[in-house]
Amino acid sequence: MNSFDTHMAHYSIKEVETLTGVKAHTLRIWEQRYHLLKPRRTKTNIRYYTDEQLRLLLNIGTLNRSGMKISKIAGLTSEQMGKEVLVLHNTPNSDNLLDSMIHCMLDFDERRFEKILSNAIMKIGFEATVTRLIFPFLNRTGVLWATGSVKVVQEHYITNLIRRKILVATDAQPVEPNAQSKKFVLFLPEQESHELLLLFTEYLLRKNNHEVAYIGARLPVGELAYIYQVYKPDYLVTFLTAPLEDTTPAAYCKKLSTMFPQCKIVTGGVQMEQVKGGLPSNCVLVRSQEDLLGIIS
């Protein structure tokens, strides 16, 4: 995000396009034809948008995608737009909810974010809420963070709200081991700190009555030998999202395969998508919830 002063956030037209999903040429038409807003300009004549203008555009984009004509939207006040958007946000399978979740992240609005997730869970269930709402939201947040459109503190804030939801759901899954139950060790490499996918994996495993030793983030690979010896897992599960230091994803998987030849190693994540060629015979790549459930069944 471009910082022209220290008191107010400023967004370039490209950043606003990413945040709102509204193309830059459409934004210009709205500005010129309907006078919905007037971007400011730097001393070097570069246009930018303020926080207030971004929030207005999020609402305009939401209403327009819902079918409301831009000419009608232009006749509404900001307060009227807000009320119309709140009505739309009652449909949990709508892309409009992503706009609302972005609002919550920007405004640190825990109550509204909690209401969105709770309503979605009641209507479509916890798993569908995670896969159809939370993960798409996180993908969008990741793009925004990478472009500097979202601050680290905002990303951490919203991630921890989601983390809390997943933990509560996981605690509600008692495990009664039986002959079909398997043992899983869940961990992330030393450079990896993003745990939400791993946490959701624990939820799915416990729901399917499997035993889980959740180790979490930033685990040195050498520490796995001890828990493997004591716990004797059937599966090791890890996800590679951040770049590894001093090694490659393929080499990392090969090392795990060599260290634990009797164990099935389940892995996925952005870094694994870049691996060319085959993986060791005891390594399995998962790209979705369905892949994971297919493996454990």
Secondary structure topology:
Layout: E1 10-11, H1 13-20, H2 24-34, E2 40-41, E3 47-50, H3 51-65, H4 70-73, H5 78-88, H6 96-107, H7 110-124, H8 126-146, H9 152-171, E4 183-187, H10 196-207, E5 211-216, H11 224-231, E6 235-239, H12 249-259, E7 264-268, E8 283-285, H13 289-296
Parallel strand pairs: 4-5, 4-6, 6-7, 7-8
Antiparallel strand pairs: 1-3, 2-3
Helix pairs in contact: 3-5, 3-6, 6-7, 6-8, 7-8, 8-9, 9-10
Helix percent reads: 40-55%
Instruction: Please tally the helical runs, counting DSSP H or I stretches of 4 or more residues.
Output: 13
What's the alpha carbon Rg, rounded to whole Å? 23 Å
**Number of DSSP-assigned strands:** 8
SSE order, one letter for each helix or strand: EHHEEHHHHHHHEHEHEHEEH
Outline, from the CA principal axes? elongated
The N- and C-terminal alpha carbons lie at a distance of 45 Å
- What is the mean predicted local confidence, pLDDT? 86
Sheet having the most strands? 5 strands, parallel
By secondary-structure content and strand pairing, the structural class works out as alpha/beta
Unreliable sequence segments:
1-7
Q: Strand order within the widest sheet?
A: 5-4-6-7-8
Percent strand equals: 5-15%
